[in-house]
Amino acid sequence: MKSYWKYLIVAATVIVAALLVSRAYTYRYRTAGTITVTGLGETEFTSDLIVLRGSIDVEKYDAGDAYRAIERDKERVVEFLTSNGIDDESIQFDMLEVNKEYKSVYNSDGNYQGSQFTGYTIRQDFVIESSDIDTVEKVAREISSLIADGISIDVYNPSYYYTRLDDVKLDLIGQASADARARAEKVADNAGAEVGELASSRIGVFQITGANSDEEFSAGGSFNVSSRNKKARVTVRAEYKIK
Q1: Last-in-domain residue among 158, 173, 196
Q2: What is the reported pTM?
Q3: What pairs with residue 241 in β-bridges?
């Protein structure tokens, strides 16, 4: 009989200990449990600023002739731009870049004899910044026709920007945060719990790519300037307490 009571006491002790451990674990989970989710904010927008860069080059043996030639070509470029709808104030010219040019001289045996001065090269870079994107795009397609007039001109692909990008970023953060909250509530509801206050959050990098493009995202963030129509997205990683 004494042996029976001994085993009964041991069994009761084990049951009580298990209940205490279970209650302690439940209390810890309810007070310290969290849900971590990632919310997404995404939108598309159209650029409102275009930047077109180009350069004019002349080569002359005499420095004075080179300077007069670059000024003459510059005037013809400005005339072409303004006659095609570009505002004077949208055109900016950089400082002239002047270089002396030389060529290597070899004798009849192929031995190097030194260098010989061949003249001057003057380069004039220019940039057009405008909100009239359609007009600048048209000019970009047609300005190379000046080559037929003897002007050595290079024009590069336009760059597109959005002047209210900070507003877009703020809206995306709001969208991503709301999406994260909705996801957390869905997870908690499926688990029979409730979402409490925000414990922590972290904003991911902004990814700005061309709309309808297959550009890859970058770990440091993407910033597309080659597309007029763009897509922006950002993620917010949020941790919520569980009630």
Answers
A1: 158
A2: 0.79
A3: 34
